[in-house]
Amino acid sequence: MLYHSEREREESAYHDIMTHTVRLPYNEAAFNTAMAALMARHEVLRTAFNIGQYSQPLQLVHEHVAVPLTTEYQLDWTLDARQTSMEAWLAEERAQGLDFTSPGVFRAKVFVHCEQAFVLGLSFHHALLDGWSTSILMSDLVSY
After folding, report:
1. Average pLDDT in the 33-57 region?
2. Complete edge-to-edge strand list for the sheet that includes strand 15-22
3. In which band, very low, low, confident or very high, does the pLDDT at 97 lie, cut at 50, 70 and 90?
4. Quick check: 60 and 50 in contact, CB under 8 A?
5. At the topology level of CATH, where does 14-143 sit?
6. Domain locations in the chain?
């Protein structure tokens, strides 16, 4: 997957971007703490890859990585403005791509729409997570 992603940078077949609606009030400090715990628990979220300097590709797990999380408060935005913001984020993520050489192969963004729910956007390479592991990740996140 990494080989094809490296050769075909314009394609985003292995760049997964998804959103999850979380029906809980958003507490930024608590969520940052939960994300930090998630990053500490799951080594794959702290992973980078070196695919060209050695005779074999290497997966490098970093001990500490800053939580790759941004938050956008949209409490009094119109539905159209929220949709435009989400579409812009999706387009930006696709255009930015992923840098395998640093542990930025996973990013998250929170869109706070109302007092009782928020949307969590995740952007990552498929070499890190798939459908099953994303479900485990989300279960762990809400348990913190």
Report:
1. 90
2. 15-22, 117-125, 106-114, 69-73
3. confident
4. yes
5. Chloramphenicol Acetyltransferase (3.30.559)
6. 14-143
